[in-house]
Amino acid sequence: MSDKNSIIICDDEPDIVSLVQKFLQLDNYKILTCSNGKEALKILEEKYEEIVLILLDVMMPALSGFEVLRTIRSKDFYNNIKVILFTVKSFKEDIEKGKELGADGYVTKPFSGNELRSYIKEVLNN
Ligand SMILES: [Mg+2]
Fold first, then answer.
1. Cα–ligand 1 centroid distance for 14 (angstroms)
2. By three-state DSSP, how is residue 34 classified?
3. Tens digits of residue pLDDT in 59-91
4. Among 42, 50, 87, 124, who pairs with 2 as Cys (CB 3.0-4.6 Å)?
5. Residue pLDDT, tens place only, 1-43
6. Structural domains in the chain?
7. Alpha helices (H) along 5-106
8. What is the DSSP letter of 27?
9. SS3 of residue 105 by DSSP
10. Do the bridges between strand 30-34 and strand 82-88 make them parallel or antiparallel, or are there none, so unpaired?
11. C-alpha closest to that of 56 among 73, 115, 25
12. Which residues lie near ion ligand 1 (Cβ < 5 Å)?
């Protein structure tokens, strides 16, 4: 039986991925990382039963976070997986678009690691 305690961090900036990973490990989540949307969908397909949340960068080459989110929300068996989008602060339209596509939350870059930790707890408890 697999624990349902995994979080995917998907961002094309390696520094962001390792920073977020460092913080989330403090809360004992199992962390899976990737640098593009295609990989994120592959991890989801293989491990969706153990995944509670995906932190998804919007601005990525090839497959954007929005496209990944659209795919996730089109499949019923991903229904209980939360999605938080990483957006750049000035991009208000990202938040609107994310809402329409079914995102559960937003984190604007730059962010504070501890705020991110408590925000994730909040989203997971909703
Ligand atoms: Mg990016």
1. 10
2. strand
3. 999 899 999 999 999 999 999 999 999 988 777
4. 50
5. 457 999 999 999 999 999 999 999 999 999 999 999 999 999 9
6. 6-125 (3.40.50.2300)
7. 14-25, 37-47, 65-73, 92-101
8. T
9. strand
10. unpaired
11. 73
12. 12, 57, 59-60
Distance from the alpha carbon of residue 118 to the mean position of ligand 1, in angstroms: 23
User: At residue 64, what is the residue type?
Assistant: S
Ligand 1 center to 101 CA (angstroms) = 19
Q: Which two tokens stand for residue 77?
A: 């068996």
Q: Side chain identity at 65, as an amino acid letter? A: G
List all residues 6 or more positions away from 90 whose beta carbon is below 8 Å from its beta carbon: none
Centre of ligand 1 to C-alpha 53, Å, is 18
111 alpha carbon – ligand 1 mean position (Å): 14
Q: Is the pTM of this model over 0.85?
A: yes
- CA 58, 11, 14, 29 dihedral sign is positive
- For ligand 1, the distance from its centroid to the CA atom of residue 80, given in whole angstroms, is 25
